[in-house]
Q: What sequence folds into this?
């Protein structure tokens, strides 16, 4: 079974600085998706970024980028120019691609605090 | 395009009762899945439906059930509620094969 591990329960960063959240996963599959989701205090789960395992190029969405290391099974999220609105729980998630299965396997989350 | 909607947003029930939660996916999405989120267990997969068929099921007791209708709307039911069922229940939808999974705002269930 696939597993996702986020080893940093909490992180903090100064506003406008850069922070990196770590995620490792375990799978025997060669093709899959990886995601980062943000969950602010409203509890709405917001998709931040998606990476397809067959793509070598790291995904980027504005201030958010990932460092995808397939061989190491590592998938970190970098947030540049941190803003107060980035404060939230961040979850790393894995999804298989076979059979169009939608099941997501989540890590335990990292609580990110932005210091003004 | 409207996002995933869930009703009700909040529910308070007592032990032994049953509850039904509803989810309407994004228009055109035929795949719907449900997750339970608790402080202790984190986010756990409940089940997934595609075109009215349950395609995948998590490790939950039979008290948890669900279904999907022809318009892709989905319901989940929990019977004989226990205190431990108190949680945020999240519904998600996606286009099959597209990869991106979008979540609704959740239903907060409290069991007294």
A:
């Amino acid at each position: 079974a696939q597993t996702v591990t986020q080893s940093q329960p909490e992180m903090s960063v100064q506003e406008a600085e850069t922070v990196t959240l770590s995620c490792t996963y375990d799978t025997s599959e060669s093709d899959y998706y990886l995601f980062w989701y943000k969950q602010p205090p409203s509890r709405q789960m917001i998709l931040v970024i998606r990476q397809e395992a067959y793509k070598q190029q790291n995904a980027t969405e504005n201030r958010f980028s990932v460092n995808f290391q397939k061989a190491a099974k590592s998938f970190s999220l970098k947030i540049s120019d941190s803003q107060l609105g980035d404060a939230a729980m961040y979850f790393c998630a894995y999804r298989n691609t076979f059979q169009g299965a939608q099941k997501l396997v989540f890590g335990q989350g990292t609580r990110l605090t932005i210091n003004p | 395009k409207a996002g995933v909607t869930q009703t009700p947003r909040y529910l308070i029930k007592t032990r032994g009762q049953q509850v039904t939660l509803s989810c309407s996916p994004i228009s055109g999405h035929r795949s719907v899945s449900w997750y339970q989120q608790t402080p202790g267990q984190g986010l756990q997969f409940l089940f997934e439906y595609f075109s009215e068929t349950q395609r995948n099921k998590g490790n939950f007791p039979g008290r948890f059930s669900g279904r999907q209708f022809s318009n892709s709307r989905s319901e989940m039911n929990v019977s004989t509620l226990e205190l431990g069922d108190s949680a945020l229940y999240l519904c998600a939808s996606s286009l099959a094969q597209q990869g991106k999974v979008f979540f609704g705002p959740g239903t907060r269930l409290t069991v007294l």
